[in-house]
Amino acid sequence: MDTEAQPTERDRSSRPAEPEDTSDPGGPEERSRFALWISEWVPGGRITLTLLLCLLFLVLLSTFVLQPFQIPSGSMERGLRIGDRVLVNKLAYRFGDRPQRGDVVVFDGTGYFGDADYIKRVVGVGGDHVVCCDKEGRIRVNGRSVDESAFLYPGDGASGVDFDLVVPEGTLFVLGDHRSASSDSRDHLGSPGGGMVPVGEVIGRADWILWPASHFTRLERPDAYARVPEPDGAHG
């Protein structure tokens, strides 16, 4: 009896799978060609391209999102001093929100205050009835007196100029915290626009003091205006 094992055909399904060709047009060779093209097209190659992209990012960031602003005068002391650099949030009022009483805003004063950007505190918004001053020397907004002592410059009163006005819709009545050294809405009541700042001219809200490092802090909206009623309630 022939006991020798008969040769059998090996199951082809058990063979190791042949490696597939995974090369693609965007593989290392193509990327190398692209890098070579960049290095030839851009002086300095990848390093220069990286720097250009970073610069573009910073320009877009400054144009549409955040912008540093240097305090040019003492009109916002004691909180903001000459030379301080604040970070302006340019998106603060771009999605339906509007400036509120107490906000510190940067705005383009061309045609209203002068050919420059200014930084002031919002005291009245559209429809507000703003009066100075009550018997204790405080500003009244919609019939309620506002205690501004937490941020006014030491020794300053609410205003050395009396006024009684209603803020037109779509505008802001703004004052500096250093009232005796600030040129603000009070100084332009007889000018075109009546000293009011159109909301559309607001560049953004100052949210942080960045420099000097010893003065680094977040600019919070003070509680002084929190209890001011809305204009409709005041006139009702």
Beta content: 15-25%
Which runs of at least 5 residues are low in confidence (pLDDT < 50)? 1-17, 19-26
Q: So what's the CATH class of the largest domain?
A: Mainly Beta
CATH homologous superfamily assignment of the largest domain: Umud Fragment, subunit A
Measured between the Cα atoms of the first and last residue, the distance is 119 Å
| CATH topology (level 3) name of the largest domain | Umud Fragment, subunit A
Describe this structure in words.
With 236 residues, the protein is of the alpha+beta class. The chain has two domains: 28-63; 67-235, Umud Fragment, subunit A (Ribbon), CATH 2.10.109. It is 16% helix and 24% strand. It has helices at 28-41, 46-64, 231-235, and strands at residues 66-70, 85-89, 104-108, 117-124, 129-132, 139-141, 144-146, 163-166, 171-175, 197-198, 202-211, 217-218. Strands 1, 2, 3, 4, 9, 10, 11 and 12 form an eight-stranded antiparallel β-sheet that branches. β6 and β7 (144-146) form a beta hairpin. 27% of the residues are buried. Mean pLDDT is 81; it is low at 1-17 and 19-26.
